[in-house]
Amino acid sequence: MLATEAVSTDLLVLFAAQGVSTPRLVMTGTRANVLGIDKSDRSTCVVSAPDSLDAATIEYLANPLAAKAPQPKLSALIVNQATPLEMSCVKLAKLSRLLPAAVLVDCPETSEAFAVEASAIESYMKTAAHSLRIVSRARVPLEDAEHAQVVAFRPRDGGIEHLAIVVGELKTDAPVLIRMHSECFTGDLMGSLRCDCGNQLRGAISEIAKAGSGILLYLAQEGRGIGLVNKLRAYQLQDAGFDTVDANLQLGFDSDERDYLPAAQMLSLLGVSQVKLLTNNPLKVAALAKQGIDVVERVAHIFPSNEHNDGYLRTKAAKSGHMFNFEPKK
Ligand SMILES: Nc1nc2c(ncn2[C@@H]2O[C@H](COP(=O)(O)OP(=O)(O)OP(=O)(O)O)[C@@H](O)[C@H]2O)c(=O)[nH]1
Ligand SMILES: [Zn+2]
């Protein structure tokens, strides 16, 4: 059993009910790889020190943007495979949109911390997606699609909500034109030029309206699933020279942390089983098909680049397999 308390440094401190003699840091294998303290391909590592891990070392290990301090002696660290309980610590940190690492300490006798079973953390994502329900819907005429409705989905536990923009009258006995759009506060709302999200959002609504009907799933998966705060950290790393994929890895995340089970569940609740999918991302096609939705066609969804998002789009083509013609810069 674990008890949780988020600390101001954005690192999760977890009290383990089992004895933990000295504090240890649970982190992703990805972060351990980029630090060079583990060369294996394990998903989660647990790091300890012969004496005790000090705060500066923990900060250095968990946060690539930590204030520059003398590098701690990494060769003295002990790196081991994480136990299932330790793995669930990183899952909890990710679910909380914190840095994907956690400090594990012994539970003080008097602690009033909130307790949660590790197995509940494991099953949370699946349970939440399966329990999604339509909780409200309303007509919202849009500039590019006057006949539109916003439909809100919420899991039973009141957790993360997702939205569907349903345009026109759906004909669910034929493939429905859809877009799975991951939330992007900076691009969708602020018109950021760092990505292509704003254009893709409005472009998809307009494309669907022109087709007569369809759905835009507006998924609460900011920053390819790492959350807005971590996306801003990734931007800071990109300004220091990392590309959009490597910045995620530096933070300890996978390059793409999204899960499309909620999207498939939303489509099922709307009575849709066959789709034409507006995307350039082959992973989205495969992920939706894996969840039992028949993707009969991929429809390209490409917009002109600008000087700020050119590198981002090139990286997507070169590293994430996005289907548009961008040669990597020599
Ligand atoms: N982590 C991270 N997320 C980013 C970055 N730039 C944009 N995003 C996020 O990426 C998501 C955009 O993904 P999508 O529009 O679904 O794009 P995609 O995966 O390229 O797929 P398609 O657009 O369908 O081809 C949004 O959640 C953005 O917030 C970045 O540099 N780092
Ligand atoms: Zn964006």
Automatic annotation (TrEMBL):
Sites where the protein binds Zn(2+): 184, 195, 197
Residues annotated as domain GTP cyclohydrolase II: 137-299
Transmembrane stretches, start-end: none
Functional pathway: Cofactor biosynthesis; riboflavin biosynthesis; 5-amino-6-(D-ribitylamino)uracil from GTP: step 1/4
Record keywords: GTP-binding, Hydrolase, Metal-binding, Nucleotide-binding, Riboflavin biosynthesis, Zinc
InterPro entries in the record: GTP_cyclohydro_II, RibA, RibA-like_sf
GO cellular component: a single term: cytosol
Co-factor(s): Zn(2+)
Matching Pfam families: GTP_cyclohydro2
Residues annotated as signal peptide: none
Gene3D superfamilies per UniProt: GTP cyclohydrolase II (3.40.50.10990)
A molecular-function term among this protein's GO annotations: zinc ion binding
Highest rank taxon of the organism: Bacteria
Binding-site list for GTP: 179-183, 200, 222-224, 244, 279, 284
EC number(s) from the headed UniProt entry: 3.5.4.25
Top EC class of this enzyme: hydrolase
GO biological process: riboflavin biosynthetic process
Task of the protein: Catalyzes the conversion of GTP to 2,5-diamino-6-ribosylamino-4(3H)-pyrimidinone 5'-phosphate (DARP), formate and pyrophosphate.
Family: In the N-terminal section; belongs to the DHBP synthase family. Belongs to the GTP cyclohydrolase II family.
Listed name of the protein: GTP cyclohydrolase-2
Species the sequence originates in: Zwartia hollandica
